[in-house]
């Protein structure tokens, strides 16, 4: 899918309309071992609650939620940009919940989502981006490939879904308006 992922920004109502595929992606990632806030077994209602809260955050303008479709129009990935920070950090945004279905991985979906979410941040005049991810995970390579700077690791910061302690690695990326524009085309879902 490299270069062909169709990335869209969702409104709050669209997040609600896409809640089933978003729930499926979250459950698939957690069942695949991703340390993304949830433990096994992950009940469907917990995943629904998560995306309903995300829709509320989108409605409040506190975060931007993007999805990626495959060539058949199936939702295969998602990522969020958290934009709401205290008044002394108006230029900061956090990238959060980068999730790609296991059966759609290694085709460039996450790379497309990351390029798109960085473009959203740039357009919102966010110049300091921050994220954290599980130490040693596939995601670390994704962020390093995209030019993110590894800040450091906190050992035993959380647990994998099956209860093993895992570290958290923090990354940052500085954006400037003069950064070369990405080629990702963002469209509205409607
Ligand atoms: C981390 C994650 C988002 C990556 O998603 P992805 O869509 O597979 O990512 P990409 O396809 O852009 O890149 C993954 C790999 O495929 C490779 N790749 C990309 N396009 C490719 C193609 N067309 N052909 C072959 N390989 C390709 C990349 O080079 C990369 O290789 P590497 O892992 O050896 O470095 C996904 O594994 C995931 O959802 N994990 C669980 C949730 C998680 O941990 N999220 C991070 C939270 S911060």
Number of domains: 1
What is Rg?
16 Å
Question: Which class do the helix and strand fractions yield?
Answer: alpha+beta
Q: Regions with pLDDT < 50 over 5+ consecutive residues?
A: 180-185
Number of helices: 5
> Any idea of the CATH class?
Alpha Beta
Strand content: 25-35%
CATH topology: Aminopeptidase
The arrangement of helices and strands along the chain is: EHHHEEEHEHEEE
Query: What topology, given as strand order, has the largest sheet?
Result: 6-7-5-4-3-2-1-8
The N- and C-terminal alpha carbons lie at a distance of: 22 Å
Q: Which features does this protein show?
A:
globular; 32% strand; eight-stranded mixed beta sheet; binds coenzyme A; 190 residues; single chain; Aminopeptidase; alpha+beta
Give a quick rundown of the structure.
The protein is α+β, with helices and mostly antiparallel strands and 190 residues long.
Give the topology:
Elements: E1 6-10, H1 12-17, H2 19-31, H3 44-59, E2 63-69, E3 75-82, E4 92-100, H4 109-123, E5 128-134, H5 138-145, E6 149-159, E7 165-174, E8 186-188
Parallel strand pairs: 1-8, 4-5
Antiparallel strand pairs: 1-2, 2-3, 3-4, 5-7, 6-7
The structure holds coenzyme A.
Coenzyme A binds next to strand 4, helix 4, strand 5 and helix 5.
Explained architecture:
The protein has 190 residues and is α+β, with helices and mostly antiparallel strands. It has one domain: Aminopeptidase (3-Layer(aba) Sandwich), CATH 3.40.630. The protein is 31% helix and 32% strand. It has five helices and eight strands; from the N terminus they run βαααβββαβαβββ. The chain has an eight-stranded mixed β-sheet, sandwiched between helices. A hairpin with a 5-residue loop joins strand 2 and strand 3. It is globular, with a radius of gyration of 16 Å. The structure holds coenzyme A. The site of coenzyme A (COA) has 21 residues, from strand 4, helix 4, strand 5 and helix 5.
């Amino acid at each position: 899918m490299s270069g062909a992922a169709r990335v869209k920004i969702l409104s709050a109502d669209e997040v609600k309309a896409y809640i089933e595929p978003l729930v499926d992606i979250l459950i698939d990632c957690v069942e695949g071992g991703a340390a993304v806030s949830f433990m096994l077994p992950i009940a469907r209602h917990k995943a629904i609650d998560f995306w309903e809260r995300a829709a509320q955050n989108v409605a409040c303008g506190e975060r931007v939620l993007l999805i990626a479709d495959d060539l058949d129009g199936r939702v295969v990935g998602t990522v969020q940009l958290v934009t709401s920070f205290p008044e002394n950090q108006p230029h900061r945004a956090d990238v959060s919940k980068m999730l790609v279905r296991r059966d759609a991985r290694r085709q460039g979906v996450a790379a497309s989502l990351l390029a798109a979410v960085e473009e959203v941040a740039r357009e919102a005049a966010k110049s300091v981006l921050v994220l954290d991810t599980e130490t040693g995970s596939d995601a670390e390579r994704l962020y390093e490939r995209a030019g993110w700077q590894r800040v450091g690791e906190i050992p035993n910061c959380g647990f994998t879904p099956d209860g093993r302690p895992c570290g958290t690695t923090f990354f940052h990326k500085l954006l400037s308006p003069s950064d070369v524009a990405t080629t990702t085309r963002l469209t509205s879902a409607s």
